[in-house]
Every structure is written in C-alpha cells, then in structure tokens.
Amino acid sequence: MKFWVNVLIACFFIGFVSCENNRFEANIDNQSFNAKVFRIDKELFQATQDGNLSEWLKLKEAELPSFFPIYTSEIMRVGYPEDSLAAFRLQQFSSDTLWQGLQLEIDAEYQDFNEVYQELGNAILRVQYFFPELNTPNIVCFNSGFNIAVYPHKEFIGLGLEWFLNPESRYVKMLPPNNFPLYKRQGMDKKYIAYDAVKGWLLNRMYNDYYFNKDLLHEMVFYGKVMLVLEQAFPQAKIEDLFKLEEERMRWAEDNMHGVWKHIVSKNQLFSTNAREINKYVMDGPFTNEFGSESAPRLGWIIGWQMLKDYADEHDNLTLKEIVEQKNEQDILKSFNPKSFNK
To answer: 58 and 114 share a domain?
Structure first.
C-alpha cells in the first residue's frame, strides 16, 4: 500500500508527465525521414567566392523551382530570378564583409546539421503518423540577413539559420533594438530551430480559411489546435519552449488563466472580430499590455491550447485528427475549464 501511495505522490509532483498514458503517442520506430537538405546559405557565398554566381543561380532555379522565386523575391528581397538586378544584388549581399562574417558564424554553428535534421525528421514523422496525407517537406537553409526566420511551404520548410545562432552572438547583439527588441533576440537560439520550423509548417498546413472574418474564439481554437499537434510532435519538450516563453511567463499564464478568462468574458472580447482586440491576444510581444509587464504574451494561443486539451480529455474516443477537424468551436468551448490549466 505504501508503494502505491508513493507512486501517486510522485505523479502529483511531476505533473502526471510520466504516469499519464498519452493516447496520442505516435509510433515511428519503423519509419524513416527522407527529406533532402539544401544549404543555400553556404552555396551562395561559395558561388560568389568562386566567381560563378550567375551559373549557380540558373542551376538552383532549375533544381528548386518552387523555392527559388520565393527565395529571391520574398526572402532575400532582390527581385525575381529573371530580374537582371537580382544576381547583382545577391552578389552585393554575399560580398559584404558583414554578411560574410555572419555566414562564418553560421558555418561554425551548423557545420553538422544531422542533429537538427534528426529532431526535425522525428517531429514531422510524428505529425504524419496522425495526418498521413501531409507530404514530407524538404529542408532549405539560407542566410537572409535577418529577413526571414522560417518560411513554411507545402513542399519545403525554409530556415534562416542566422535566426537560430545564440542570443549572445555579436551579430545578434548588433541588431537594432527598435526592430529586434530584447524578447526577439532572446529567442534567437539554436534550441528553438526545430520547434519553430515545425510550428511554422503546421500553421501553413492547417491554415485553410482561418483568417477571414473570424472572432477571437476562432483564433484561439486555431492556434490551440496547432499547439496541441506541436506538443505531440515533440513529446519530450518543455511546453514553455514550444510556446517560446520563459518559464516564469508560462507560470504567470498558469497562475492567472482564470482571471484572464474572466476579463475576456466581462469585456465581451471572446466573439469580437475587431482585429486590434484579437491581436492583443495572438500577436507576439514581450507581454500582454492589458495585464502588465510580468504577464505572458500570446495568451490566446495558451488559452486555445488548454481549450483543446480539455476538449480532448472530455472526448477520449476521438483521434487527434478528429479533434483538429472539429469545426464546432462552441462545442470545444463547452469543455473549457480555465481553472484546469495544464492539468
């Protein structure tokens, strides 16, 4: 009897993590991840150094037809590949000693990409276990000069490796604080690269029509679904890392969830379609203005995630795919208990 009492006490103190059966556990033991990795970052600087940038551009445009127009026009912002100035502007970028120095730091940090590849691959395989219709995306790495961190697409996940170096990197510290405030720079850490990559991919794959004339509840449910799936993709990760929050911010959300919910309801914000009202709860930032400088940002994501967890607990006959495909937000709302945070 004493043994079982001790087990129950242990379960309580570790938040039921190891004693709770995860019905969404994905078995990927016999699965292999076969995505290709393209190191556009290294290749661009090497092609410039070798003096064959024009030939390299033509080769990459043929090899990566869905990626390369996006790379030049949206990621590097130098124009489309056929633009005569695109090659010139790329050469200017890759000949600049500042960006060359940044690339050397990227090369040192990501000399071996295998660890990131394995973490990414296992997470994507877990997602595909529940959603087998999703294609395997290739991984395309680039140095965008801090333009783009993650560019998700149905055929690839683009990764700006300079966004995942180290907050103490001298290049990160050089970034202008008006455009890159402290909370953003603190998130420029290698430990987040797989989490951010898969999160971006899920947002892209689950997007559909979510952003047209929707209210706050709809946004919460959407982001909650994304985070519920992300949680299954990285079952060993700390939830604050998946949300890209400091531990004390996540603890604030846990301690104040009921009060935040009461505020939302009392202010009639739950069904608001006012973009400004919605953005307070879903856009990134150091905190949520309405609740002070110690509060957590993106509270809508956190509330939505808890809504989906509560809904899953009440509907233990449903698969993860069936939960994500549930369109009735009112039904999901009925299951939500703001006092049950992360139980």
So the answer is: yes
